[in-house]
Each structure stands twice: as C-alpha cells, then as structure tokens.
Amino acid sequence: MGNEQKENSNKYSIIIPTYNERLNIALLVYLIFKHLPNVNFEIIVVDDGSPDGTQDIVKQLQSVYGEDRILLRARPKKLGLGTAYIHGLKHASGNFVVIMDADLSHHPKYLPNFIKKQMETGADIVTGTRYVKGGGVHGWNLMRKLTSRGANVLAQTLLWPGVSDLTGSFRLYRKSVLEDVIGSCVSKGYVFQMEMIVRATRKGYNIAEVPITFVDRVYGSSKLGGSEIVEYLKGLIYLLLTT
Ligand SMILES: Nc1nc2c(ncn2[C@@H]2O[C@H](COP(=O)(O)OP(=O)(O)O[C@H]3O[C@H](CO)[C@@H](O)[C@H](O)[C@@H]3O)[C@@H](O)[C@H]2O)c(=O)[nH]1
C-alpha cells in the first residue's frame, strides 16, 4: 500500500475468537505482523477456555510482541461466536475493527486490501466475499460447499441484502457502526454474520466488498455442526419476519 499506509492514522482492532486453536494462532499472529508493517493495530484474542491450551500460546506471543499489541480476553467456557465478538469489541481501542478466524482460513495477506478498500470508498463495512470474481473456496468437500452456497442463495432470495457473501466473517467495520449494529443482533452462533450484515444494510450503512479465497483449516476441526445449521434456518426466518 506504500504511501497510503503511511498516511493512514486509523487504529485497527483485530478480534480473533478462538476455541482450540493452539496449532494455528502463532502462525496467524506472525502473518498479521508481516502483512501490516506500517499499520497501527492491536490483536484481541477472545478464547473460550480452550482445553488444548490456546491461551498458553497467546501468553507466549504476548511476551514476544507485547501485551499492548496482543490482548487476551478469555472467557471461562465455549459461549459462541457472536458473543465472542461482542466481548472482544468491549476491549477494542481502535476506530476500526477487523473480525477474522484463527485457523488461517482467513489469510492475513488480504488485510491490506480491506484497509485500502475502506480508505478508497469511505465504506462503513468492508466484507470479504468468496462469491465474486477473484474470490473462492479451497479445501471444502462438496457437502460443505453446497451448505455454504445454499445458505447464501436462500438468504439472498429471501432477504435481498445486496451483499454477495452473507455468511463469511472476514470483515472490517467502522467501530461505531459495529457497536450500533451489534446491539440489535440477537444471534449467538454462526448466523450472527448474516444478521450483522442484513441489519447493517437495513440501517443504510455503506458496505464494500473485497474478494477473498477461503482456505479450509489445516489444523484442528470446524466447530460448525448440525445444530448450527438449524440455528441458521431459525435465524433466517427471524430476519425475514423482523427486518
Ligand atoms: N471464542 C470462541 N471462538 C469460537 C467459537 N466457535 C468457533 N470459534 C472460533 O471461530 C473461528 C471460526 O470457527 P470454525 O469452526 O473454524 O468455523 P468454520 O466452520 O470454518 O466457519 C467459518 O466459515 C463460515 C462461513 O462459511 C463462517 O460463517 C464462520 O464464521 C467461520 O468464518 C475459529 O477461530 C474458531 O476457533 C466459540 O464458541 N467461542
């Protein structure tokens, strides 16, 4: 980004929810620092008492990078993705907030694109999308691809949000916008991503998109199960009736 980064006086709070991400978190943090050399940012890890000892690794990373650059805001047990973001947001000191997964499926190499896009467009939200030219998904089996595609097509058809990827979570928000929208969200699990973006469009916020390729995790396993799919369908009906 060259000169643009030097002129960028914003601060970015990167919120990373973790549950059993011991094998991924160090590489992720390394890559974030590598790809944002001239950017003012903090990383906020919201760990839900991961039994694999994710917090021990985060503490080691704090000793390397500093507790002002990596904040650990733990919760005692697994309480869901939506509330993990809310928890992280409470501790964010930046005027922009990035939300991304810990498992490297959201590659930090895209972070400069999010920042550049926001600065060029003045958007309130920049959302990573797998479903435009230049974006994609790598490493999912057919069932997972169909689930994601189906969830998006269903939501596009019923809710008309004008955003191509409703269920992705790699996003940059103006902090004030995130605080405003998050307060009206009721979802706690994965459906939270869709609710956020639908409510933001209904409130008239300006949303830009950047293509990303989502690469399935190498280490650990997805926490997306059948119960999350049922919750998604319930959430979709709820949004249909209330927005
Ligand atoms: N703190 C906390 N973190 C959690 C929890 N559940 C999951 N996470 C963390 O949230 C991130 C995403 O979890 P995954 O289980 O890896 O998600 P996924 O199945 O790959 O789903 C991804 O893609 C979906 C779209 O297809 C997204 O909807 C979803 O948010 C996520 O980005 C990871 O960093 C994981 O450790 C929780 O209850 N609490």
TrEMBL record:
Residues 13-181 form the Glycosyltransferase 2-like domain. It comes from the Eukaryota. Its EC number is 2.4.1.83. One of its GO terms (biological process) is GPI anchor biosynthetic process. Pathway: Protein modification; protein glycosylation. It is found in: Endoplasmic reticulum. It catalyses: a di-trans,poly-cis-dolichyl phosphate + GDP-alpha-D-mannose = a di-trans,poly-cis-dolichyl beta-D-mannosyl phosphate + GDP. One of its GO terms (molecular function) is dolichyl-phosphate beta-D-mannosyltransferase activity. Component of the dolichol-phosphate mannose (DPM) synthase complex. Transfers mannose from GDP-mannose to dolichol monophosphate to form dolichol phosphate mannose (Dol-P-Man) which is the mannosyl donor in pathways leading to N-glycosylation, glycosyl phosphatidylinositol membrane anchoring, and O-mannosylation of proteins. This is Dolichol-phosphate mannosyltransferase subunit 1. It comes from Coffea arabica (Arabian coffee). The gene is LOC113699385.
